[in-house]
């Protein structure tokens, strides 16, 4: 390997923190916003098919989110491990991590395809008895599961680029998939020109085609530009300890996102008997939430390899600088997001063809939930610090407490004592509880780990 090979990742330990974080985060933010945008566009087009179509996609969302949770969690484990190894100049270890990460992604996609094809119908039938909605939901789930190899490989390729600081290329992989998806959505949903009219199935087909295109581009970009990582299975030997470490690090992300899927599915189950439109509102909220939260996730995704690298390189001040800068940026973004949703909730809902009843229910719902965003901004940053410091268990505890211990019980109590229209206050209650717990954990990890790291600047 040439001497120039490791120099790209060395900037994680030498470049000015503010500039480095923003430079790394901007492509990630752009790519994540694009990703979130085409999920929103999916729902906007599907809503034009009918509210039962939007209901089918909303019901399927927890399973789709679970698939992404496994892919992202695997990627987080891989990228965090590689960044830490590169900080210690362990280039051979980084190669082994990359190979095992890709292997795990392929195996996970195969298992996911088999399981979801079997369970799609009983899952969707838990939330609707309408035969049209049921068939739409089952079809949508089976298509995205069968071809899930695209999203699994795409996310791993992006994380390999992220682990060496080449975040600009992750934007191109997501951009390619998003553009293809957005173009194909109306063509396949409504049958424009030579394309067949597929309805909800068309939205699913457009999504998986975009994901596969992003995966192919990601493989190409890694092969050409990511010189520190060689994607090859030549001489590959499966090592259980590497896989265990990948999932030890990435398990928090998997649990966090999986619990979110469980929480959404459970809330759908609580709200559906009272008013199916409440399920649609919840689905719309999570699509809009992604647009607000994606910039914060972009910042924290850039922050994690910086902290991991400097943790391995024993540079404490750079670690603290990355945390503080991430907090300033994230809180500012969340305050802006709260302002936008508080000011224009009707306009947001009308994008999804909302009728008068949906506006009546949805406007106060969006305003109530958005009040929790600033608390969430702090929590997201510090949760990712835990992962960078190999203390993912703290993030899992917080997520379990927030989603299972607070949101669901609070929702059930509010619905059965005040009414289903009060269910949205559970989000605000949960964020306050979660932030309190996170601050306690962060104080512990700072005193026992961060403050003990030598400073070799």
Would you write up a description of this structure?
By secondary structure, this protein is mostly helical. The protein has one domain. It has helices at residues 7-10, 17-49, 51-87, 91-125, 131-146, 149-163, 167-190, 200-225, 240-271, 276-312, 316-343, 345-350, 356-370, 373-388, 392-417, 425-448. The chain is globular and about 60 Å long. The two termini are 26 Å apart.
Number of distinct beta strands: 0
Mean pLDDT over the residues = 86
Give the low-pLDDT segments: 1-7
Beginning-to-end CA distance, first to last residue: 26 Å
Order of helices and strands: HHHHHHHHHHHHHHHH
Strand coverage percent: under 5%
Number of domains: 1
The radius of gyration over CA amounts to 22 Å
The total of helices stands at 16
Major sheet description: none
Share of helix among residues?
A: over 70%
Using brief descriptors, characterize the structure shown.
single chain; 457 residues; mainly alpha; 16 helices; 0% strand
Concise account of the structure shown:
With 457 residues, the protein is mostly helical.
């Amino acid at each position: 390997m040439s001497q120039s090979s490791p120099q790209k990742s060395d900037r994680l330990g030498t470049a000015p923190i503010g500039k480095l974080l923003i430079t790394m985060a901007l492509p990630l933010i752009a790519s994540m916003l694009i990703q979130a945008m085409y999920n929103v566009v999916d729902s906007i087009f599907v809503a034009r098919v009918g509210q039962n179509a939007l209901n089918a996609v909303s019901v399927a969302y927890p399973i789709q989110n679970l698939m992404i949770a496994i892919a992202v969690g695997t990627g987080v484990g891989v990228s965090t491990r590689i960044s830490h190894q590169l900080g210690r100049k362990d280039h051979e270890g980084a190669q082994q991590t990359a190979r095992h990460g890709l292997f795990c992604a392929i195996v996970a996609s195969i298992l996911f395809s088999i399981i979801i094809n079997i369970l799609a119908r009983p899952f969707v039938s838990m939330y609707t008895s309408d035969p049209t909605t049921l068939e739409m939901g089952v079809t949508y789930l089976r298509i995205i599961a069968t071809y899930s190899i695209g999203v699994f490989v795409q996310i791993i390729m992006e994380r390999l680029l992220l682990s060496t600081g080449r975040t600009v290329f992750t934007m191109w992989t997501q951009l390619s998939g998003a553009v293809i998806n957005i173009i194909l959505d109306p063509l396949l949903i409504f049958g424009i020109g030579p394309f067949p009219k597929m309805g909800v199935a068309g939205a699913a087909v457009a999504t998986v085609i975009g994901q596969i295109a992003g995966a192919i581009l990601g493989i190409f970009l890694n092969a050409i530009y990511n010189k520190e990582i060689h994607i090859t299975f030549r001489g590959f030997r499966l090592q259980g300890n590497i896989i265990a470490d990948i999932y030890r690090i990435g398990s928090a992300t998997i649990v966090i996102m999986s619990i979110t899927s469980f929480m959404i599915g459970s809330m759908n189950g609580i709200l559906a008997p009272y008013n199916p439109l409440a399920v649609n509102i919840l689905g719309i909220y999570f699509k809009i939430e992604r647009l607000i939260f994606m910039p914060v996730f972009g910042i924290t995704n850039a922050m994690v390899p910086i902290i991991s690298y400097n943790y391995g390189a024993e540079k404490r001040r750079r670690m603290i600088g990355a945390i503080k800068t991430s907090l300033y940026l994230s809180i500012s973004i969340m305050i802006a997001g709260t302002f936008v949703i508080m000011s224009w909730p009707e306009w947001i809902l009308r994008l999804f063809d909302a009728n008068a009843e949906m506006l009546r229910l949805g406007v106060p719902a969006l305003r109530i939930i958005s009040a929790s965003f600033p608390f969430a901004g702090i929590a997201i940053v510090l949760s990712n610090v835990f992962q960078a410091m190999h203390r993912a268990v703290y993030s899992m505890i917080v997520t379990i407490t927030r989603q299972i211990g607070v949101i669901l019980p609070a929702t059930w109590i509010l619905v059965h004592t005040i009414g289903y229209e009060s269910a949205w206050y559970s989000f605000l209650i949960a964020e306050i509880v979660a932030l309190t717990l996170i601050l306690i954990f962060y104080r512990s990890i700072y005193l026992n780990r961060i403050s003990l790291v030598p400073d070799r600047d």
